[in-house]
Amino acid sequence: MKITFLGTSHGVPAADRYCSCSMIETGGALYFIDAGAPLIDILTRRGEDLRAVKAIFTTHYHADHTDGIAPLANLFTWYYKETDVDIYMTEKTAIDAIRAYMAGQLDHLEEDRVRFRLMTDKTAFDDGRLRVTPFPTRHLAGQGRPAYSFLVEAEGKSILFSGDLSGRLAENDFPRYALDHSVDLMICEMAHFGIDEVSPYLERCRAKTLLFNHVFPLGKLEGIAALDMKWGYPIRAVADGDEIVL
Ligand SMILES: [Zn+2]
Ligand SMILES: [Zn+2]
Question: Residues with beta carbon < 5 A to ion ligand 2?
Answer without folding.
Answer: 62, 164
